[in-house]
Amino acid sequence: MFIRLLSIIVLAIAFSGCATTQSKTQNDQIQSRVTDLEKNLQAKDAEIVDLQYQVKDLSSKVESSKPVESDQITADSQNTTDQAEPVKQEGVLSNSQIIRVKVSPEKIQRALKSAGVYTGPVDGKIGAGTKEAIIEFQKSHGLKADGVLGKKTWEELKVYLK
Q1: Alpha-carbon distance 149 to 108, whole Å?
Q2: Is 99 helix (H, G, I), strand (E, B) or coil?
Q3: What Rg value do the Cα atoms of the chain yield, rounded?
Q4: Per residue in 45-103, pLDDT tens?
Q5: Under 8 Å CB-to-CB from 92, ≥6 apart: which residues?
Q6: What is the DSSP letter of 89?
Q7: pTM for the predicted model, two decimal places
């Protein structure tokens, strides 16, 4: 009887060792799969970011190809020559790159100045300072801080003109 009990204990220990080995193998397989999935997720995230840049680039190209309406005359588009794009001065960005609403750069700069985020001159030239002020305004108002003055940003900003 003692031998029978001893053999049962020995068998139980042997089988439990196998179960531990199987459990460890399964854990390793699961961990390997998790690592693979994390790598795939990072690759997809990078792909999404790349696609967002492509969409932004294409939308700016579409926006710049739209005809300029008479009430949308700005400092960059006051040339009397028939040009598809406004003349770009050194350090001055194209309005179509930043402004996506029908409003003059002067009004934008005045509103940004009233909001306390722009310290440059109100000269109608959209440059790096104006873009930085737009980004700062967007950040402080919970908007997407992309430096582009779209409908949502203008709705928040135009309040400062009054």
Answers
A1: 9
A2: strand
A3: 31
A4: 777 867 776 787 777 667 766 654 434 434 343 333 333 333 344 455 666 678 889 99
A5: 76, 125, 126, 127
A6: P
A7: 0.45
